[in-house]
Design goal:
By secondary structure, this protein is of the alpha/beta class. The protein contains 20 helices and 14 strands. The radius of gyration is 32 Å and the shape is extended.
Length: about 475
């Protein structure tokens, strides 16, 4: 096929495209449209030719239209080689909306004079529907795996989830306070994923992992030649998080000079790169976290009080695991399911003695330590239920931290304890059936046995020898 034949059949070639194609004059009039455009929008090429391209009511074009008398669209201000790509919504002839991926490029003649523009539209409505379906299924998966991956049914954690929901609907700074291993990173991520800025970037920095000079460059970026090794300009995490959220983990470890610069950014939403005097504007929501007592640091001169007031707008306190031991059986079950799926080992459940040991242990490392303990157990065990011999030895050392078991004192607790013992004795120690008799779940049976310090063998023996 020679050039003449190609030119002769060029219109047919255009009509074979799956994407809609438009040729638009520099005044914004539609000059031509292919067959896919007709099928996609419902307009015929004949009825749309000569019409303004605003007829499609493209939301991306509405942002690009200018009224300064120099032209109708900012597309024509772009460099010659520029091809603008964007996701947009257009309105079809029947009035319904269609999501599309648009490519737009300016046409020039041999002398560089603007002739018009070429646009292609790809219908992504089905892709958008599938994206929403995936998002829905992801949320469903989260629902079966805790709240945004955070496991807990205790009243303390339900309170935390409620504050997360409120923080997500706000744009104010959040500070997450809690011991190491309580899940501060998960909380920060949940605030972003469920928040107003979920569509924007989420950037995380561990402030304790870098020295002062590196941390300043990491946060604010630097210009070429600003220090030894700065071979090129580099944008920092604030710029990367523009339009989204920046999570500053271990905020208590930030050096004082950087605290001053950070305070300025929070107050003005502007900063300068290292070695530069040009201010840059950003729109960033700050989430911070620490396991330190910031008030004590302030008293010692290690943390600025004005910065503390800036970041401590919405505080979220995460309870240590020893204060929500009723969540341990659920955490154990969740982590064991994950480990079983990952390792493929035929491990089924956990012996009561091993669970009781986990319930008594105070877990100074919190949920992270519990997870590590179960990873250790899955490494040691080969099959069957986990027992005490599979747990880390340090958990049984003489100086191992332990949770105090409360002694029941009031009438309700005595009655609850008596009913539990009766149910266990009536079912021969079958905790699932005992839970059914009491109208509660099996985890609650575990929790009450731990709470009242019940030994199943002792209680069953007492039943066989006489009344308890």
């Amino acid at each position: 096929m020679n050039d003449i034949e190609i030119n002769r059949y060029w219109g047919r070639v255009i009509d074979t495209l799956n994407d809609a194609l438009l040729i638009i004059s520099k005044e914004g009039r539609i000059l031509a449209a292919n067959r896919s455009f007709e099928e996609m929008t419902g307009y015929t090429a004949q009825e749309i030719t000569g019409q303004s391209c605003r007829l499609l009511r493209c939301d991306a074009c509405e942002k690009a239209i200018k009224d300064d008398g120099r032209g109708w669209c900012t597309l024509f201000d772009q460099p010659r080689a520029d091809i603008r790509k964007c996701r947009c919504e257009i309105v079809k002839k029947d009035g319904t909306a269609m999501l599309a991926l648009k490519n737009a490029s300016v046409l020039y003649d041999e002398d560089g004079t603007i002739l018009g523009a070429v646009e292609t539209l790809t219908d992504i409505s089905e892709l958008d529907r599938l994206d929403k379906r995936v998002a829905f299924l992801t949320r469903q998966l989260d629902a079966t795996d805790g709240y945004c991956g955070i496991i807990g049914r205790s009243p303390q954690m339900q309170k935390v989830f409620g504050i997360i929901e409120k923080a997500a609907r706000s744009d104010a700074p959040v500070i997450i306070l809690g011991e190491s291993g309580t899940g501060k990173e998960l909380v920060a991520r949940a605030i972003h994923d469920r928040g107003l800025r979920a569509g924007g970037p989420y950037v995380q920095v561990n402030c304790a992992a870098l020295n002062a000079a590196l941390l300043e460059s990491e946060l604010f970026g630097h210009v070429k030649g600003s220090f030894t090794g700065a071979f090129r300009d580099r944008k920092g995490r604030f710029e990367s998080a523009d339009g989204g959220e920046l999570f500053l983990d271990e905020i208590g470890d930030i050096p004082l000079p950087i605290q001053i610069k950070l305070l300025r950014v929070l107050e003005t939403q502007r900063f300068e790169r290292v070695g530069d005097d040009q201010p840059r504007a950003v729109d960033v929501r700050i989430i911070t976290a620490t396991n330190k007592d910031l008030l004590s640091l302030i008293a010692q001169g290690g943390f600025r009080q004005d910065l503390y007031f800036r970041i401590n707008v919405i505080p979220i306190h995460l309870p240590p695991l020893r204060e929500r031991t009723e969540d341990i059986p659920l955490l154990v079950e969740t982590f064991m399911q994950r480990l079983k799926s990952k390792t493929g080992k035929p491990i089924s459940g956990i012996h009561k003695e091993a669970m009781d040991s986990l319930m008594r242990y105070a877990f100074p490392g919190n949920v992270r330590e519990l997870k590590s303990a179960l990873q250790y157990a899955f490494t040691i065990a080969e099959k069957g239920p986990l027992d005490i011999s599979h747990l880390p030895p340090q958990m049984f050392a003489a100086d191992a931290p332990a949770v105090d078991v409360p002694v029941p004192g009031n009438h309700r607790e005595r009655r609850e304890r008596r009913e539990l013992i009766d149910a266990l004795q009536a079912t021969g120690g079958n905790q699932t059936r005992a839970a059914q008799l009491l109208g509660i779940n099996r985890v609650t049976v575990w929790n009450r046995m731990r709470k009242y310090g019940l030994d199943l063998k002792r209680e069953l023996t007492a039943n066989s020898t006489g009344p308890a």
